[in-house]
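ARCHIVE CARD
CATEGORY: sequence design from structure
SOURCE FIELD: tokenized fold
FIELD CONTENT:
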């Protein structure tokens, strides 16, 4: 890398952290310690103006480099700038929060010591109290943007807004911000100060939702019902998937084909287990088999921890050249967020290794948790999925910092879903569990595009999943809330996995024989847009 490139990348990252100091809460870099007590308001016009000026500046700088001389990292930096500036054409600012993307909850988690911010000394608690001084302004900006949404018909579906109110109300009633470790510094009055701020601001948000917002929400559930809704959705699909020349119509049809293929594989498992009956009867039988249930939460957590250790010892050496230092903790989802969180998720560690990676499992209803999920979920969320891939990025010495913080959902989730194909699955039940999770991702292609592009109703969506899916009705309801709340996000898994499989096939066609070499090649540059990953393998 030339000195000029190094300086460009360094300046880009440094200026971005100066504009948005909270970036460093997750990175924990000592050179930005002076910003530890600062928190930007991402919903204010002032912040948006700063960001717009910043991205225009760096797009202009990167455009001075001839196209033929652009490096991989140049192309990524250019993509970042263009994507942000193009997003300003749409009214996404009218949707500052929903139950699955809620900065208020993220800040509560930080305050309680369950988020990215690291509390190790008294100064850290003092710093967060200083950060919280900007929280009231942030809530006011959220409300102002949602009022703008009411005036321009850019509002959430009523079903989502009602869930949002429930979520905020639950956090308020549970006082989920209480940090038990802060008691080491009684004179600081940390919890008391946080309580005053959160009770005031969360109450304000609940009142707004009740009195103004929910009465003006829409009964439709898809983006297609919004002004320029199809165009907005197509933009989200393009930026989510980072694939060139892919259409919503193709994604929908691909999903239908994949659902059919996976059903046929499931029928083979049904035959192996010698179960006579319909697909739905077989699904019901597998969901209710007592030998596949956990006795208690402790057994569940121990089973997952043991599977992580087993894969580390028995699978990883034969699949990967690179070893990682970072450990992965297996934890239950915090109780206050069980109702609104997904079945499992991963929270990455920091660059310096002070904060470990965390694999959270939702124990809301242990009867819904099954042993058939364990292997595929560990492969996806922990190793060699999210934890392994993100740890490689964090532990790499030569990546520019902006690359370390860069995320492409279709690469991240595509890699994790690809990793579900790497398990041993020694029993038919284990492999069936893998197919159950794959079926869910295929169904997502159909229903996400169905809801947001083709205008499917809640009832049509629910009936499609009930007819074709595996999950219980209560889980289906929470999944539909997710798909409505996060348009296009559910597409990332299957489309991303397809890209990795296409690259693997090209690697084999070109004479590659060692799977370790393939994995090194797809991981060695950090997270990439899918079109650049295809370019690495000369796939047109």
């Amino acid at each position: 890398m030339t000195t000029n490139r190094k300086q460009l990348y360094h300046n880009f990252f440094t200026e971005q952290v100066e504009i948005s100091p909270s970036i460093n809460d997750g990175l924990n870099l000592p050179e930005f310690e002076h910003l530890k007590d600062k928190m930007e308001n991402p919903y204010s016009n002032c912040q948006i103006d700063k960001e717009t000026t910043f991205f225009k500046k760096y797009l202009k700088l990167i455009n001075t480099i001839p196209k033929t001389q652009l490096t991989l990292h140049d192309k990524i930096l250019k993509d970042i700038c263009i994507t942000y500036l193009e997003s300003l054409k749409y009214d996404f600012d009218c949707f500052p929060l929903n139950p699955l993307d809620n900065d208020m909850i993220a800040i509560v988690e930080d305050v309680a010591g369950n988020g990215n911010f690291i509390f190790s000394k008294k100064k850290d608690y003092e710093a967060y109290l200083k950060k919280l001084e900007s929280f009231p302004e942030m809530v006011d900006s959220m409300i102002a943007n949602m009022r703008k949404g009411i005036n321009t018909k850019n509002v959430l579906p009523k079903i989502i807004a009602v869930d949002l109110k429930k979520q905020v109300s639950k956090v308020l009633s549970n006082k989920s911000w209480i940090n038990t470790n802060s008691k080491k510094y009684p004179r600081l009055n940390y919890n008391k100060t946080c309580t005053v701020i959160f009770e005031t601001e969360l109450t304000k948000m609940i009142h707004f939702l009740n009195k103004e917002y929910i009465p003006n929400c829409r009964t439709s559930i898809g983006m297609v019902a919004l002004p320029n809704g199809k165009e907005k959705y197509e933009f989200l699909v393009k930026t989510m998937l980072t694939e060139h020349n892919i259409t919503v119509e193709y994604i929908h049809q691909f999903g239908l084909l994949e659902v059919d293929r996976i059903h046929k594989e499931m029928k083979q498992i049904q035959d192996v287990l010698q179960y006579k009956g319909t697909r739905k009867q077989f699904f019901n039988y597998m969901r209710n088999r007592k030998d596949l249930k956990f006795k208690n939460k402790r057994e569940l957590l121990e089973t997952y921890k043991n599977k992580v250790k087993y894969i580390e010892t028995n699978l990883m050496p034969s699949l990967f050249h690179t070893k990682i230092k970072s450990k992965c903790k297996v934890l239950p989802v915090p109780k206050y967020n069980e109702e609104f969180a997904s079945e499992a998720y991963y929270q990455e560690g920091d660059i310096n290794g002070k904060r470990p990676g965390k694999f959270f499992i939702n124990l809301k209803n242990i009867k819904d948790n099954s042993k058939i999920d364990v292997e595929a979920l560990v492969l996806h969320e922990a190793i060699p999925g999210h934890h392994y891939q993100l740890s490689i990025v964090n532990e790499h010495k030569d990546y520019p910092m902006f690359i370390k913080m860069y995320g492409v959902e279709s690469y991240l989730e595509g890699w994790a879903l690809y990793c579900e194909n790497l398990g041993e699955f020694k029993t038919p039940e284990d492999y069936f569990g893998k197919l159950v999770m794959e079926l869910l991702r295929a169904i997502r292609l159909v229903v996400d595009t169905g809801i947001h592009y083709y205008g499917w109703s809640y009832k049509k969506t629910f009936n499609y999943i009930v007819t074709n899916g595996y999950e219980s009705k209560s889980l289906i309801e929470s999944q539909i809330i997710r798909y409505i709340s996060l348009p296009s996000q559910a597409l990332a898994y299957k489309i991303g996995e397809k890209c990795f499989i296409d690259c693997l096939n090209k690697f084999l066609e070109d004479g590659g024989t060692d799977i370790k070499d393939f994995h090194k090649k797809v991981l060695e540059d950090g997270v990439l847009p899918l079109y650049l990953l295809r370019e690495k393998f000369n796939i047109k």
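CARD ANNOTATION: The chain has two domains: 3-220, 241-494. The two ends are 27 Å apart (CA to CA).
SHELF: design records, drawer C
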